[in-house]
Amino acid sequence: MTRTITILGATGSVGASTIDLIRRERDKWRVMALTANCQAAELAELAKELNAEVAVVADESCLPALRSHLSGSQTLAAGGAGALNEAASRPADITIAAIVGCAGLAPTMAAIEQGKTIALANKEALVSAGEVMTAAVSKYGTTLLPVDSEHNAIFQCLAGNSYDHVRSITLTASGGPFRDWTLEQLAAATPAQAVKHPNWDMGAKISVDSATMFNKGLELIEAHHLFPVGLDKLRIVVHPQSVIHSMVEYRDGSTLAQLGPSDMRVPIASCLAWPSRMDTPCAPLDLAALGELTFRAPDEDRFPATRLCRLAAEAGGAAPAVLNAGNEIAVAAFLAGHLPFTRISVMVEELLGRYAPAAPVALDDVIAIDAEARGRARQLLELV
Amino acid sequence: MTRTITILGATGSVGASTIDLIRRERDKWRVMALTANCQAAELAELAKELNAEVAVVADESCLPALRSHLSGSQTLAAGGAGALNEAASRPADITIAAIVGCAGLAPTMAAIEQGKTIALANKEALVSAGEVMTAAVSKYGTTLLPVDSEHNAIFQCLAGNSYDHVRSITLTASGGPFRDWTLEQLAAATPAQAVKHPNWDMGAKISVDSATMFNKGLELIEAHHLFPVGLDKLRIVVHPQSVIHSMVEYRDGSTLAQLGPSDMRVPIASCLAWPSRMDTPCAPLDLAALGELTFRAPDEDRFPATRLCRLAAEAGGAAPAVLNAGNEIAVAAFLAGHLPFTRISVMVEELLGRYAPAAPVALDDVIAIDAEARGRARQLLELV
What we know:
alpha/beta, globular
C-alpha cells in the first residue's frame, strides 16, 4: 500500500533522516510536498529524486532559483508563506513537521487542519502555540506523533496504557557539554564550547539549549501538552549516556523505558510506520559493550532553565511563548558573543517577569506574542 | 465488577504476594480455590479470611488437619491430587499457577483447559511440558500471562507489537551470588553461600539455580515457548542491579525495557489487572538515587547452564524436561552436600547425553519422562 507524505523542512536534519528512510522503501511512499527555507538547489534535487508533486521555498526570493533547478521536471515550484501553507494543506497521509522555530507554526497548523497524521519535530511550535495547537489536534481529530527522541520514547512506553495509570513520566537529559562545570566555569563558557554536544549532532541553537538545559525544559513543556498527566508527574533525570530516551512509571510500580542509539532515524521510523514498525539500519543496542548507564538528579542552581520552563508551563497561556522567544533571542546574543552563558536564563526570567500578555486563543495571537516578546527581549539585551 | 480467582500454591511466596494485593482491593475479588501442599493451618486461615469456596491440600494426609482448622467455616476442605485438579478446573476468571516444580503440572493444565486467564508462575511446568502446554493454551483459547519478573517485563514490552517486528529479546540476569567468582572458587562453593541471593528473597532451590544460572537458562526456555520469535533472537545480559527486568528490541532500533523494584507484587499486579493497571505499595523508581546500572556479557565458561538450556531448547521435545529433572536432582544433591557446585551442570549435561526419549505428546508423557529422568539422574549421582 502506498502512502502519501509531505516533509515540511526537507533539507534539515530531520528531513534528511526521513528521506533516508523513505529511500529504503521507495515503493511504499508517494511524496506530495517538500519544503525548505531557501536551499533551492538541494530542494530541487530531492524533489526530482523523489518525484514530489510540489517543492516550496519559504523565502520567495529563492523561487526563481528553485524554478530554474526544477525546469523540465514534473515537480511544481512555489515560494512564500502562502505557498508554504498551501503545500501543508495538500492531502497527505502523514506530514513531517520539521521546520525549526516559530516559522513552522503556520504550516504545521495548516497540516493539523487536514485531520490526518502529523509527526511533529518542531519543538517551538508546541511550546509556543501549546493549547492553540492541541485544541486544533482535538478539533480535527488529528493523530499527533512526536518525533523528538524523548517524546517518541514516552509515546512508545504509553502504548496501550491509560493516562490514569501513570505515576510519573521521566525525561532523560544528557546534561549537555557543561554538566560537570562549576558556576564560575559556566559564566565564562564560550559559544564554541557550547555547540559541542556529547551525544547528538545538532545545530548551534539546539546545542546551546542543551548546554543551558533549556532544551530539556522546552521538552518538559512539550510533554505537558502531549501527555496530559499533570506537571507534577513530569520529572527530569540526568543520564549522560543518552541511551534511555525517556520513561513512564505506572501505578503498579512498573516502569517502561525506551532505549536506542542517538540516531533520529529511530523515532522517525517509529512515526512513519506507527502503529507498525519498519526497518532502520541502526546498529543493535549492546548494553554489555556500553558497560554502564549512569543517572543523577538535575542541578537547578547551575542550570535554572528547567525550573523556568516548569514555571512557564504552570503559568500556561502566553508564558511558554514568551519564554521560548526570549530564549531564542538570548541564545542568538550568546552565539554572537554579546551575552554571557549564565545570563541566558537570567534574561529569560526577566522577560517573563516584565511581559505577561493574555493567553493566545488563535495562531495569530501566538505569532503576535512571539514577535512582541522578541522585541522586548532585544530591548533587555541593550540594557545588559 | 467482581472477578473470581483461584490460587494454586497459596502459601508460597507468589501466593502471599497475590493475597497481599487482593487484600488491598478486597471488594473486587471472589476467591474460588486456594491450594497448598500441606500447610493446613496457614491455608485454613487464608481461606477463612478470604472466604474461599474451597481449600485443598495436595498431600491427602494433611486433609484431617485442614478439615479441623476449617470446621464451622463456609469453605469446603479437600485433599489429594484429584481434589487439586478438580479445584483447578472450577471456573475462575484468573488462576495464579504458583505451585513449585512438576507437582504443579497437572493442576496448571486443568486450569488451562478452562480457557480463561492463567497467570503462570510455575517455571518448571512450561519448561518441562513446553509444546504440550502451549498447544493446550492455543486449543482452549486461554490467555497466558507470565508472572516471572523477566517474562512479565517482556510481555509488557511487547504490548501492541507483532513478533514479526522483534529484532531480539534480552533477558537480564543478576548473575547470582557467584558472578565474580573464579572457577576454582566455584568448585568449592557451599550451599550456604549459594542460597544468599543478592537481589531477591527466594527459596533454596531457586537460589542455587540463580547461582548456577540455570534459573536464567530455564527462563530462556520459558521465553522460547511464551514468545515464539526464534531462539536465535533470545539473548541474556548480566545486570547485577536487577533494575531492568528484561528488554525487547524492535526492527527500527527501538528497545523497550521494563524496570522496577525486586518485588513480585509488581508483575503479579500487572497480571491481576491486565490489560489495565492496579495500585501496588511499591516505592517509585529513583534512578538518580541508584546512580548506575551496569551490564556485562554472560560467561558460559564459568556458568555453562545457559548454554545447556539453549541446547535443550534447540533440541526441543523431551530435552527440556530431562534437563529440568536432572537439575532438580543435582541441586538437591548439592544442597545435601553430596555434589560439588560445578558438578551440577556437568551432571545435567551427562544426563542429556544419556537419556533422549521421544517427544511427549500429552501430559502423562511429560510426567513419565520427568520421573524416568529423575531416576537416571539419581543413578548418575551414585557414580559421582
